[in-house]
Amino acid sequence: MFGNKFTAEEFDNGIDARLLTKTIFATAHYVIGNIVEASNILNPESAEEEEPGE
After folding, report:
1. Which of 5, 16, 36, 38 is deepest in the core (most CB within 10 A)?
2. SS3 per-residue string spanning 6-47
């Protein structure tokens, strides 16, 4: 996977599920035409929401 830099298991263990879920959800909105909603998910305007891992 990814040029044999790491295995699928290493990927699963290393990815933050909150970020992955947020990205998948935003992508789904983009595909069905809700571009504004997708943009808001990926780039929230409120400074109160912290990114995972920060």
Report:
1. 38
2. CCHHHHHHHCCHHHHHHHHHHHHHHHCCCHHHHHHHHCCCCC
